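Weekly modeling sync, notes
Attendees: S.R. (lead), two postdocs, one rotation student

Agenda item 3: backlog of single-chain predictions. S.R. asked that every request posted to the team notebook include the full sequence so nobody has to chase files. The rotation student volunteered to paste the first one in as an example of the format we agreed on. Action items at the bottom.

Example entry:
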Amino acid sequence: DGLVNRSELEGLLYTRGLRCDESTLDALFQIVDTDGDGTLDKEEFERLIPALVAAQARGSAPCKNVRQVIV
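Predicted structure, as returned to the notebook:
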């Protein structure tokens, strides 16, 4: 359907080696889901993934520093 729900995001992060705890995943989703519909559309998703990949490449822990990574 072109949208990513929380469960799908969790699976995607896991495959990238990012294991976030439940509260961090909730916070991450809330920050990026700017329209509050409970899913990530293309624009929201495209904002999230490059930020996570860049943080991971820098050696930071994106799941521990979620607000710094996305903002």
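Discussion: group reviewed the output briefly. The two ends are 27 Å apart (CA to CA).
Action items: rotation student to repeat for the remaining queue; S.R. to check formatting next week.
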